[in-house]
Every structure is written in structure tokens, then in C-alpha cells.
Amino acid sequence: MPASLKQIARECGVSISTASRALNGHPGVNPATRERVLAAAGRAGYRPNNAARALRSRSSGTIGVVLPDMLNNFYAACTAVLQEQFEQHGYGMVLAVTRNDPAREREALRRLASAQVEGLVLVPTSRRWEFPDARVPVVEMNRHSSRAGIDVVQSEEREGSREIIDHLLGLGHERIAVIVGEPQFSTTAERVDGARAALEAAGLRLAPELLLAGRHTRAWGAEAFRTAWSLEPRPTAVFTASSELALGALHAAQQLGAAVPRDVSLAAFGDPDWFDVCRPPLTCFEQPLQEVGMITAQLLLSRLSGDQPDHRASRVRVAGRLVIRDSVAPT
Amino acid sequence: MPASLKQIARECGVSISTASRALNGHPGVNPATRERVLAAAGRAGYRPNNAARALRSRSSGTIGVVLPDMLNNFYAACTAVLQEQFEQHGYGMVLAVTRNDPAREREALRRLASAQVEGLVLVPTSRRWEFPDARVPVVEMNRHSSRAGIDVVQSEEREGSREIIDHLLGLGHERIAVIVGEPQFSTTAERVDGARAALEAAGLRLAPELLLAGRHTRAWGAEAFRTAWSLEPRPTAVFTASSELALGALHAAQQLGAAVPRDVSLAAFGDPDWFDVCRPPLTCFEQPLQEVGMITAQLLLSRLSGDQPDHRASRVRVAGRLVIRDSVAPT
DNA sequence: CTGAAAGCGCTTACAG
DNA sequence: CTGAAAGCGCTTACAG
Predict the structure, then answer these.
(1) Is the pTM of this model over 0.70?
(2) Would you give the distance in Å from CA B136 to the centre of its chain?
(3) Class of the CATH domain delimited by A5-48
(4) Which CATH number is correct for A158-287, 3.40.50.2300, 3.40.50.360, 3.40.1080.10, 3.40.50.1450?
(5) Is the predicted pLDDT of residue B292 greater than 70, yes or no?
(6) A279 to chain B, closest Cα gap in Å
(7) Which nucleotide is nearest to A57 (CA to C1')?
(8) pLDDT tens string B116-130
(9) Does domain A60-156+290-318 match CATH 1.10.579.10?
(10) CA of B17, C1' of C16: distance in angstroms
(11) Is omega for the bond preceding B281 within 30 degrees of 0, making it cis?
(12) Does B97 sit within 8 Å of A95, measured CB to CB?
């Protein structure tokens, strides 16, 4: 049974008001009294009850984070940064996962509202979400919904995609398969856009049969690669819009005996740790995960501290960079 | 401003007691009244205040999870399973990360105590941790401390290590470098033990120069591999005790121009997604991540539900399996 | 510098 | 079936 404020106060012969003030470092407490209270609390292993404190002070000291999936390398990295930043500023983090299911998202937002989170980082899975408490600042991370007036922090999706395709075009590829995830996500739309723009700038177009949309899974990456490989004529290059898709595509290529990059070039969006030890090391667009997490945290924290004179919503796009390895060859 | 119980009650012309009972599905509420309350709550987007509920009912509905690092594939996977299981049983999860720092661990445990968690999953980083509230059931996951009477769920560390070494021995390797992480972790000790036991069973021994202990990072994996490679005579095989270490070792091998498995064989503990697309695909001992997470959750949940007639601590070791790929060749 | 008191939003015996 | 009341453990004006 953990000690309560009351017990500490009694032990020191002071009121609970005084004990509370001493523990919370309020000014205007006799230093000797403060010492006594601190000592007693230390001895008893006193821990304030968060629920009571939150209830009374009307602030939970907590920020909610809603994301699709903890296993995804990108989200895991961002979340690690968020958690560290929030902790440094005295906030706890409460996590909810949606698996890209709008119903789960709805439920997650409810739960976080019940937890009285003071701020929210959201990787939206539906185009129109609702948060019960309109006073809570929200930042959309990576993906964005169609809601107006919400801060968004993402990487340069369109530009990244365009750089990859430009790189392929520069090496003579013209028939390029584009493998992407869920079409309803803003990231997918933007990556496809970027690819399309690059092709059109070169006087080419993205043939419908070469655009393969499915889900951000290894399985779909593999299936889509096989589909692309069965096309007539075959594409000379494949662009996968995430590392999971690349994993599947690479595996499928190895199974089909398609040598990368001799038979087909492969380039991906994202750059997990293992891209440089795979067979072959993959050329890719490195997403600025750390920065996205950091900027998201800073933006939310500045909204929370209220010293954000500018009340307009921000839209931050963080630059990434092309990393050239061995998976792309000239035609 | 989210609606409170009081407002809902007033709107329906009932007392807050009745509104509370209706919302919480207590028996003995007039169905018509219940309907009215539910409807009003729905309209108002009512969400109960967790803090108030936790304070009054003395149960937070929350389980704490303390782990070293969210980026680690093993912990991310376990945590995903834990979160899903806890959610299914009506518990929220609150996460704390220690970065293998005992001081951070101490602080994390305090924070979770303040949050009144009802149960705790802990990947311990110190040999003797303390949780302020002795009534809270704790399960140690993956690693274990030296505390008696605590449930532990882990994979078969010793056996996995032994299987790997036996496999190498079977192909004629006798000079095998063993690269491990932090020596103070139980997992490290057990993996080293397993390796040593396998060697001794074959009438060999683990030479001190061949045991390279550092940290579970890519950087240490690379450095240790370079050290091993500079030994005279060179080892013919390298065993890395985690996937991060394997990543570093593989990268170092590629940089040194050491062809795996022609010049040196490589085998690892753990089996992340990408092991089968790297160069070469890695032979390894597959850790049962899902199962470890699942069993941990079930064990803690059964302690919480109190229907655990057996009060003795459990020590569960989940079996893994050897996965043979292309990174090991006969001498 | 300190204490008595109110009250945060709920749940839960208790009485009717 | 319903309501009035107590109280969970704190914080915070308010009075001294």
C-alpha cells in the first residue's frame, strides 16, 4: 500500500496543504519544514497519485500518440523520438494503435479523450476524424487527413518519389513499375503523384498496368513484383513506395531468379538499417524519420505552452535524400 | 469542453448515480431510463473521466511495460502483442523506456507507480529493482533479474546458442568467435553459457580472445567483427548474439572483403524479417517473439484476474528453432 | 509561513 | 428501480 500525502503530513505534524506545497516545490514554505517533508516522503517511498492530481488540477500531464502499427520501422523510430521529447518536457505518452482501421481509430481517439490527454499526435487513417475535446491541439504526422486547420509534419513525399524516378530515367529506364500501399493514404497519393510528374516531365506516362496499389506489407510487395514481372514487355525497373514493399519485392525477385540490378533495377522509398547489407544493397530515398519525430514534438509542445503567437496551422515538409547503392543499373 | 456525468444526468432528469449505473451496464436500471441516458451520452459525445474513475474505484485499468528500447525489433514485436492482448482484456498499456540505464529504470518504475498501474511487464536492466507497490504483479520478460519469486518468460537462450554452435561444429568449425552484447544481462550470460557448453561437449573450449562482449548495437557488431578478423589464426566462423550485432558484423565483413560464407561463416541469434534477403541470407536461431509476448500477457492477466491458484512464480522458456540459410559453409 | 475547506468527476454502499 | 451522500487523494484559493 503506497503512502499517501495524508500519512506523510501526519508523520511530519503538518497539514496536507503544507506537505503538498513542500513536495511540489512551491515558494513560501519554511525550508526546515520542507526538509522534514521531503525526508519523510523519501523514507516512505511516497509517490503522488496521478489520478488524484489530474482530477484536481485538470491536467493529465499526458500526450496521446495514435499510429497504425508499432512494428513499422518508420513509426517505431518516430515514436521513440516523440517519447523522449515529451519526457524531457515532463509529459507522459499514451499510445494507441489503429492498424489502419477507421473504427479502431475512432475508438482510440475516444480512449485518449477519456484519458484527458493534453495534446495529440495522429497518423490519420480516415479522412475525417473527430476528437471529442476541441481544445486539445493535434498534429498530424506523416500522413494527413482532409481536415483544415490542423498542423501537419511529413517528409517530402512527392519530391522523394520524383527524385527516385528521375534517377531511374537518367539511367535509361522508361518502363518503370510503381508499387504502392493503400491508395487512400495521402502519402500514397503524393508518392504516385511525384512518380507521375517525373515521368510526364520526361514526356512519358505512368501506364495503368504499371501502377500496383495494395497494402504496405511484405506480402503485397512480393505479389506486386510477380505481377510486374509477368507483364509484356517486362518493366526494366521497379519502384517500391516503402521498405516493407521493397522487402517483399526483393524476396520475390530472388525467388523468380530475377537478378537485381542485371535483370531489373529496384529502388525504394525509405531507408531502414538493413538496406545496405541486403542483396544487393538498395538504392533509395532516405526518409528523415528523426527529424519528422522531432519537429512534430516541438510543434505540439509549442502549441501546448501557448507561446505560439501564430495560430495558423503549419504544414512542414522535411527534406530527405537520395542514397545511391547497387540496385539500379543503366538499361 | 467534454460533457460530464452531471450534465448527462441533468439532461435526462435523473440522478448522477442512476446515470452512472446506466452507462456502466449495471443491472437493476429501468430499461427505458437506460435508453434515455445512453442516447443523451451518445449525443453529447460523453467520455468518462479516467482520472475520476481511477481515483474513486481504486483501479486504473492500466498495465505498465518497461523496456530498454522501442527500436529493437524484438521488443517492438513483443510490445505489439502485449498491447493487443491487454486491450482485448480491457486494459490500457503505459510504456516506459530505460535505454538499459538503471537510473532511468528506477525513474520509470516510480512513474508507473504514480500512474497506479495494476500490473507490470519488465525487461529488467538492473539485477535488483524495486517497485513501490508490492501488491502489483510483475512479469519479467526476456531478461531476468536476480529477484526471487518473480514470474519470468523468456526464450530458450542457452539451447538456441547451443544449437547454433553445434551446427557450426557439425560443419567442421572449431575456431568460432562469439560476439555478444552487455555482459551484465542474463540473456548474454545464458547465450555465452550455451556456446561454451556446446564447445566443451565437443572437447573444445571458448578461448578468451574469441569472446567479444560489448553492447547490442550495430557499431559494436562491426567493431567486434573487425577484431575477430584481425586475430591470428582467424576464426572460421562468427556467432553474433543478436540481429543488431549481425547487421554490424555483416557490414564489416562486406567492407573488409571477407566473403560470407566462403571466407568466414556467420550465424546469429534472432531472425528479423530481412535476414532472408541479405547478402547472404543468414543462418540463425529464430526467437519466438510472438509467443514470448503472448505468454507474458497471459501470465500477467491470469495473475490479475486472481484465478491463479498456484502462487509460486513461473519460469517459462519458449522454444525457438534453427533456420538454416546460406551464411554457414563447411570448413 | 501554515491550515481548514472546497472540490475535481466519478462509483458505490445505503436507504428508500 | 432510484437518489442523497460519502469519499477516492490530491491542489489551490482563502483566511489567518
Answers:
(1) yes
(2) 19
(3) mainly alpha
(4) 3.40.50.2300
(5) yes
(6) 5
(7) D11
(8) 999 999 999 999 999
(9) no
(10) 15
(11) no
(12) no
